[in-house]
Design goal:
- Helices cover 66% and strands 1% of the residues.
- The protein has helices at residues 16-49, 56-60, 63-89, 91-100, 102-125, 131-160, 170-174, 179-203, 210-221, 230-240, 243-252, 254-280, 287-310, 328-337, 356-369, 381-385, 390-398, 400-403, 414-428, 444-454; strands at residues 315-317, 321-322.
- Strand 1 (315-317) and strand 2 form a beta hairpin.
- Helix 5 runs antiparallel to helix 6 (131-160) and helix 17 packs across helix 19 (414-428).
- It is elongated.
- The structure holds heme C.
């Protein structure tokens, strides 16, 4: 089978993966706040209704519920934004996710509808309703919000640890090895985020006396205490993800390690402040500190999401689909037929290339590399190969999966490989108007030999078939 070809958008100097990642971070942060915010409101509603904390009602009917509304509206908008960007960047991945989890998406959207209706009803009419109805609306909102996380989490965690899928069917993919640790982890993150934002909001409630504000803050701070479980959940998560992904994070890839440390460091700071300062010493947290901690929480989320997306490389769905939308089975085939022989889409600025070989190279780059690289922007190939001789480029790209095992194997024939190398070299030379076609002199026998030596399997040692061994 040949891979399907889709028109793929080009975002200039911004790497495509970064477009998804950048938007995804905001989306996750907002969506998690909307969940934790709901839980916190349930808790405060209970405190208000039982008379234990009368000022909780002021908090509930104040600015916070507005923020929760904003976050789920923005969460929904960025969610649509995610679909909009991912179908332009990785249509095949999205296609696979929709096909495999069709009904789960439908269930997720149903929960989302309940979330929107209940949340808006509370926002609009909550202040006039009796306590029991308020509580029902808040519980409906919160459960629906948490369950939309539950459903989406199964699909996202399946991408890294597909578990018994495809042999075992949809549910064995959904309840995959990293399902529970990541669901619990995200739940705790949601609660922590909501608590910190609540502290910032409480500080801004100038109509309350300081002791009242202090009591509210003390109650909100309890939502930070589950962070105690984060290290254990982190260890659990790390035990179930593939060994090679674990290695990227633990030093194998500098960027991954750095972002991972950022996430851990920021979470640790928040947890320490919460446990020692807020809960043990009953410190008062002022607006500036609360805002600073919110920024740290955002950094932790960003770092965590970056790592989660990053450690999946070279796959978007582990062992099933490479990041560049080629399946492992298709590689051997494309080595023979050529990867873009059947790609129907014309090149942008086709006329700017001096010859046919360079145009071929540009199409190979677009199809196989542009998901993770740009030419001269983020993760730019011009920069990465700038100091290499022709020979080095040929060999290292022929053996791409061994050059760096978070890249998929090169999936074209020797003619395409040479065209790609020529295109990169031409680019590096400043895109001159004249460029000789290297077909007559290219060492095709050697290129083929390197391609054969590299093989068509991924670069890291994978379990021969089925789920990664540590996932069983
Ligand atoms: C799954 C994403 C992905 C794909 C697809 C991919 N790369 Fe990479 N590539 C990376 C990452 C990440 C790096 C590491 C960059 C760094 O070290 O800063 C990298 C590094 C490189 C390097 C530098 C290697 C070194 O040892 O310094 C070259 C050259 C390269 N890629 C070429 C390519 C070419 C050519 C293609 C397409 C045939 C391609 N890559 C496809 C992710 C990818």
């Amino acid at each position: 089978m040949l891979p399907p070809y889709y028109p793929i958008n080009d975002f200039g100097p911004v790497m495509k993966g970064l477009v998804i990642g950048g938007l995804g971070i905001f989306h996750v942060f907002l969506a998690q706040f909307a969940i934790g915010g709901g839980m916190l409101m349930c808790w405060f509603q209970r405190l208000a209704a039982t008379g234990r904390l009368p000022e909780a009602r002021r908090f509930l009917d104040g600015y916070f519920r507005f923020l929760v509304l904003v976050s789920f509206v923005l969460g929904a908008l960025t969610g649509v934004g995610m679909w909009f960007t991912t179908i332009q960047i990785s249509p095949r991945t999205i296609g696979l996710m929709v096909r495999e989890f069709h009904w789960i998406w439908a269930i997720e959207w149903t929960f989302f509808c309940v979330e929107v209706v209940a949340g808006y009803a509370f926002y609009r009419y909550g202040a006039r309703l009796p306590d029991s109805t308020r509580m029902k609306l808040l519980v409906a909102y919160t459960l629906a919000a948490w369950f939309s996380l539950f459903w989406i989490n199964g699909i996202l965690s399946w991408q890294l640890t597909p578990g018994g899928w495809p042999a075992g069917g949809v549910w064995s993919g959904f309840f995959n090895p990293s399902f529970w640790p990541s669901l619990l982890f995200r739940t705790i993150t949601s609660m922590g985020t909501a608590a910190l934002i609540a502290c910032a909001v409480i500080n801004a409630m100038s109509d309350l006396e300081r002791p009242q504000r202090a009591r509210l803050i003390q109650s909100a701070a309890w939502f930070l205490s589950p962070m105690l479980f984060m290290p254990a959940l982190g260890v659990w998560y790390f035990r179930v993800i593939p060994a090679d992904s674990r290695e990227w994070v633990l030093g194998g890839s500098v960027a991954m390690t750095l972002f991972f440390s950022l996430a851990i460091g920021a979470s640790l700071l928040i947890a320490l402040y919460a446990l020692v300062g807020l809960l043990r010493q009953k410190l008062y947290i002022n607006g500036a500190t609360a805002t600073l901690l919110c920024a740290l929480a955002f950094a932790a989320t960003a770092g965590g999401e970056f790592v989660r997306e990053g450690v999946r490389k070279p796959f978007t769905v582990r062992q099933a689909l490479y990041s560049n939308s080629i399946t492992p089975d298709e590689v051997a085939r494309l080595r023979k037929t050529g990867s873009v022989t059947h790609d129907p889409y014309t090149l942008r600025d086709s006329a700017a290339y001096p010859n046919e070989q360079l145009r071929l190279g540009a199409r190979v780059y677009r199809f196989q590399c542009s998901i993770c690289h740009t030419l001269d922007g983020a993760n730019g190939l011009e920069h990465l190969t700038g100091a290499w001789t022709l020979e080095q480029k040929r060999m290292n790209i022929a053996k791409l999966q061994h050059t760096k095992s978070f890249m998929p194997p090169f999936a074209g024939n020797a003619v395409e490989l040479e065209a790609l190398v020529q295109m990169l070299t031409w680019h590096h030379a400043g895109r001159p108007g004249d460029w000789p076609d290297s077909d007559d002199v290219a060492p095709y026998v050697q290129l083929q030999h390197w391609l054969d030596e590299a093989g068509t399997q991924p670069g890291m040692a994978l379990a021969p078939a089925g789920p990664p061994s540590e996932a069983r």
